Amino acid sequence: MDMDGRRLMLHHHIFIILAFRLCVEAFSPRTWPRPLVLTLAESSRCASTEERSRIAKEIWTTVALQPTSNIHKKEIQLNGESTTVYNQKLWDEFCALKGTYYINGLSSCEVGDRLVHPFEAHGFVKSLVFNGQGKMFYNSNIVNTPLTKKERKLNKIVNRGVMSSVANMDSILGHIRNAISSSSRDTANLTADLWPLPGTANKDGIGPLLITCTDNGEPYALDPDTLETKGKLIDVVPKLKSVFTDKTKFLAHNRYDEARNRLILCAYKMIIPGQSFLGNTQMEFIELDDNFDVVSRRGFTTRFMVFHDWALTENYYVVPKNPAYLKWDNIMKFVFGLNLGTDVFAMEEETNGEFILIPRHDLGKNAKEVKADSFFNCFHFGPVFEKANNELVINGCVFDSYTFGGEMGFEGEQQTFSPIEWGSTGIKSSGAQSPPPRLDQFVVDTKTSKIKSRKRVPVIPVDMPNFNGDAKQCEYSYFLGADRPEGWFPFKQIVKLNCDTFESFVYDAGDNIVSEPMIVPREVTSSSAELNGFVISLVHNAQNNNTKLVVWESQSFDRGPISECVIGDLIPWCVHGNFYPGFNP
After folding, report:
1. Where are the beta strands (DSSP E) in 420-532?
2. What is the pLDDT of residue 52?
3. Of the candidates 174, 145, 170, which has an alpha carbon nearest to the alpha carbon of residue 160?
4. CA 238-244-248 angle, 5° bins
5. N or C end of the chain, less CB within 10 A?
6. Is the peptide bond before 219 cis (omega within 30 degrees of 0)?
7. Is this prediction's pTM over 0.85?
8. Residues 6 or more apart from 23 whose CB is under 8 A from it?
9. 525 exposed, middle or buried (CB, 10 Å; 0-12, 13-18, 19+)?
């Protein structure tokens, strides 16, 4: 039999298997049918490694380069033709909920005729407004930072940033163009936090602002209704000019102290050349009340290291000390446009990772640096909380090795994406840049400043967790799953994990890309949303050129989604967001 005949026979067998599975599901006594996408995902295992890699590359490239449009109050009937319902009773409960979901993320990585690194793409904020009466209103808008305005007007890259370039580096002219281009790309594209919280009666009468930010950028304030950019937060709330300047840079991630009703920001600065020409990292945590008044601030400086996320407990700011070093021979090359900014530093993988515990309330107490038993690069935190007996529990998504510059498969010189090659599951000596993120659970003794235990949680590779609030113990957390044998990115699973027993449930979206899961409480004041609520994710379907809202009930997550609702055309990947129950702008 020739190759075409064997391929036809394989497809015929897959069709028979799918048909049989669908018949079984149709007559099974389940409350709702298992979504077809799970069955298709299983059938994709029949494809070769090369075929799966090709599909993943095409899907991610399509999503990353997808054009965006600003939309205001597109009305969607949740029980309309665009929705597929798997459990009507639970879906009706969800449709009766009132609240707003904000999520930030990438606009197209194509600016003019050139690609930018996804971390440096323009910001693109979306909101899903649920009115509690069966309707959802979809909004989207570009975050109009000064750089974004300029580049969209000129339709070309103006600032090269750290991970991108304005021209290829294979000629003298390209070197000159990069050298004279700014290394700052402030696009406010990663997070979206509403502050002050809805219903707050602060003394200055400041209404809720949607605050967006990126790493090494400035916070921007958006209108929560139209998503139009009001300006830099420091200009929209002038009193903050006494707290920081327009040159102060922040991490993208903020944290919320529910018990004290405070928003905490983290200002961040790399100091070069630093102590002994090794570089230093400086951070400051600024706690704001609902009137944007500073309640406290605490700074700390350590050796050169890099971090994107941090955690909050009752008494500490918890920072991952991901060891890195400066590559001085490349600094001048970057200045003269000969290489990328990510070539200026690298992870110091022969050095053990650490956690820095910085006291929140007593400025006289010294920070504690807790050394782990090996290197790690911790990008995101799951639940982090304090327990009795001086124990502090950290659930961290860690990379055992990591190479900067090729995130999400971006290849700047080739102007293409190769996500499978970047996220190879192999070892570094075989060419893998970043093997998949794994979840480790650390237990720290805060009295001795030592790690009592470290466990690798027996779950598929996961990252980008969502859980029911900071500074408190959470039984469950939800993650993006990264289980693909040939390379973990892009994400295609949603994972529910019991953080105590390590029992996990996985939803596989097949050849689609999933966005950060978000917990939605059944009640506005619910403190048990992780046990008695819903979970949502925006799913990007490149093949059908659309984006879907997929909804699960938290208690029955293992039985699959209760519905899928198409919200519109395909949009670029969504990153981080928040849900605000009971609030409609």
Report:
1. 438-445, 450-456, 462-466, 476-481, 493-498, 504-508, 513-514, 518-521
2. 84
3. 174
4. 120
5. N
6. no
7. yes
8. none
9. exposed
